[in-house]
Amino acid sequence: xxxxxxxxxxxxxxxxxxxxxxxxxxxxxxxxxxxxxxxxxxxxxxxxxxxxxxxxxxxxxxxxxxxxxxxxxxxxxxxxxxxxxxxxxxxxxxxxxxxxxxxxxxxxxxxxxxxxxxxxxxxxxxxxxxxx
Length: 132
Ligand code: ZN
What we know:
By secondary structure, the protein is α/β, with parallel strands linked by helices.
């Protein structure tokens, strides 16, 4: 069974972590993989050595560790503005190959400075699941 089609939300803690990591890397980009506990994204695997200094965080698909399970990806866009969260052509290439749930955060990484996309780059809903 593919659980990636069933993701309904992200743990509030995990989203906080993603925004904190985005801030700490700014103005550089980071990229990571999202993993889920049941239907909620609950963990981020940061991929080392995949940073870049400009607008293209890159990911080498052949460097994803074997055997890890993931449902999507996350990276930041270190620039502000309404178009900042839009996926680039390179992002879409990655989205199509790494699951169905892709978060892009954007400067200044406040609580609402993120969007989620499906594997073809259409914005999708992702509920924030509180920790009780
Ligand atoms: Zn991007």
